[in-house]
Amino acid sequence: MNVLVCDDDREIAAAIEVYLRSAGYAAFLAHDGAEALEVIGREDIHLVIMDVMMPNMDGMRATLKLREERNIPVIMLSAKSEDHDKVMGLGAGADDYVTKPFSPLELMARVRSQLRRYTDLGGAAKKTGVFRSGGLAVDDESKSVTVDGEPVALTPTEYGILRLLTENAGRVFSMEQIYEAVWNEPAYSPENTVAVHVRRIREKIEINPKSPVYLKVVWGIGYKIEKL
Length: 228
Prior knowledge:
The protein is an alpha/beta fold. The chain has two domains: 2-122, 3-Layer(aba) Sandwich (Rossmann fold), CATH 3.40.50.2300; 130-225, Winged helix-like DNA-binding domain superfamily/Winged helix DNA-binding domain (Arc Repressor Mutant, subunit A, Orthogonal Bundle), CATH 1.10.10.10. The chain has eight helices and eleven strands. The protein has a five-stranded parallel beta sheet, sandwiched between helices. A four-stranded antiparallel beta sheet has the order 6-7-8-9, with helices on one face. Helix 2 packs parallel to helix 3 (59-67) and helix 6 crosses helix 7 (175-183). The termini are far apart.
């Protein structure tokens, strides 16, 4: 699997490259967002580790640009740990967010988790059926989503959340349950992470995201896909 590391701090980028190669991944390096997009355009990249603060084109803008064409996983790196910055990063299209300084073991665990979801989304997983709610269809054989027959492009994380909820249409899942099922790790503070991904899913599957037909909030409890 090919992983792109984009960080203007060359020592950090080189260190992450060492961790990736020791874990068996091929690593590519870039040092600003524009350079990252160039690498993605010419190489078969399966995951991006993207720093936020960089010259020329920062990680937020690069991720927004990437999301116009590609749904590969993006793990955002930043020295900022405030919830607002995490929401901004996830809202730009990142799948996960790691705060500097980070543990190499934690970063590699998140890389493995995101690549596993990406492989499951694009690979030939075992057939488990098509899950439906009204005009919403989640085909878990082809890993595709349609609304009224029109295809919807989701990131691997968005697909994981929607598949979980649609397979269990009518059942309410708490944010903790969603996080643990999709991220496959304990949920310590999942509220912003899950909420931002849910908002992005709504923007893609709902005609009016502010008045959703499919993906409903159950106040004080969590989320569900309406059983239609």
